[in-house]
Design a protein that fits this description.
It is a single chain. The chain has helices at 8-31, 49-59, 98-106, 108-111, 124-136; strands spanning 89-90, 94-95. By secondary structure, the chain is mainly alpha-helical. The protein has two domains: 1-33; 49-146, Cupredoxins -  blue copper proteins (Immunoglobulin-like, Sandwich), CATH 2.60.40.420. 22% of the residues are buried.
């Protein structure tokens, strides 16, 4: 279709679509197709996923989040945390890395003022342990004591 036959609204929509395409493809070409590893296995030295699970329970994270492997963590206020290791961003804009996740867990309102996520007083070690747990938690994760039995 010749450009002179388009009305202003249609031309504006086409221009907007083209700009969005350029932005997405520019990001792809500048940072590459694999900005983060596919199905990464994050190395988190000096952490313990079991301590992280215990800290998640102690801080009451399950009141707001659904977290695999923790039967009582069935909140619907915040996002589900299954397969977090495969998410590109944390809190909508932080690249998903262990350091960024630990920082977010310790001080979410410093990173994103106005977030619904409260500062829970998570220590640095707890944050790293929680990150270790969340990076290993998948939809299929089920802790032995969370496995339903005939009496549940």
């Amino acid at each position: 279709m010749p450009w002179h036959l388009l009305n202003n609204f249609t031309a504006a929509l086409l221009a907007l679509g083209l700009l969005m395409f350029i932005a997405v493809m520019g990001d792809y070409f500048l940072r590459g197709p694999h900005r983060l590893p596919i199905d990464p296995v994050w190395q988190l030295p000096d952490t313990d996923p079991q301590r992280g699970r215990d800290a998640i329970i102690a801080h009451g994270c399950g009141a707001c989040h659904t977290i695999p492997g923790i039967r009582t963590a069935d909140g619907r206020v915040g996002p589900q945390l299954a397969d977090l290791r495969n998410q590109i961003y944390i809190a909508g804009h932080l690249p998903n890395t262990p350091d960024n996740l630990a920082h977010w867990l310790q001080a979410p309102r410093d990173i994103r003022p106005g977030t619904a996520m409260p500062n829970l007083g998570v220590t640095e070690q707890e944050a790293r342990d929680i990150a270790a747990y969340l990076y290993t938690a998948t939809i299929r994760t089920r802790a032995p004591e969370d496995t339903p039995g005939p009496d549940r």
